[in-house]
Amino acid sequence: MTADVVTVEATTPIRSYVDTIRARRFSGLPVVDGDGKPVGVVSHTDVLRGLVAFITDGGPLSGDLVTRRRVSSKLMEALMASVPVPRRIGDYLDQPVRSIMVGDVISCAPDTPLREACALMTSRHIHRLLVLDGDRIAGILSATDVVRHVAGVPRAV
Predict the structure, then answer these.
(1) How many Cα atoms sit within 13 Å of 113 on the Cβ side?
(2) Helix, strand, or coil here: 136?
(3) How far apart are CA 28 and CA 81, in angstroms?
(4) 29 — phi, psi (to 5°)?
(5) For residue range 137-148, what is the model confidence (pLDDT) as tens digits?
(6) How many CA atoms does the CB half-sphere of 42 hold within 13 Å?
(7) Taking the model in full, what pTM does it have?
(8) Are 83 and 55 within 8 A, CB to CB?
(9) What is the chain's alpha carbon radius of gyration, rounded to the nearest angstrom?
(10) Cα–Cα distance for residue pair 121/141, rounded to 1 Å
(11) Which of 21, 81, 103, 126 is the right S-S partner for 40, CB 3.0 to 4.6 Å?
């Protein structure tokens, strides 16, 4: 588990979120409201899904655009189409993170056994689990954290 959790506010532009995860080499972050309470999670996959939906539909996520298998082909189709992609991508990146986040906060308590946390991550098909102490983020457990723990590999500094 990582106790020093980097978060992003729901109102943060997607562009700023992308800059943060690129700089920190993260694949996703918890989304918080103005009071620091968790309201969702956003990942690099959500950015791609949102981009595909924005370019192809000009609107919110819908239908087959949210399936993982179709993201790559739909993105390539959109990028190859004769639409003003650079301007549209800029418009997309100016939208708030709340427009692409997953609003279902899946969490566990700080004293949840690792086996239970892993079972929850597996059953919900998620790569990160918020560790909540009441309504505050106490940490985040990622699939990478679990693999490092099982393999006995120390966390990179």
Answers:
(1) 3
(2) strand
(3) 29
(4) -145, 150
(5) 999 999 999 999
(6) 29
(7) 0.79
(8) yes
(9) 17
(10) 9
(11) 103
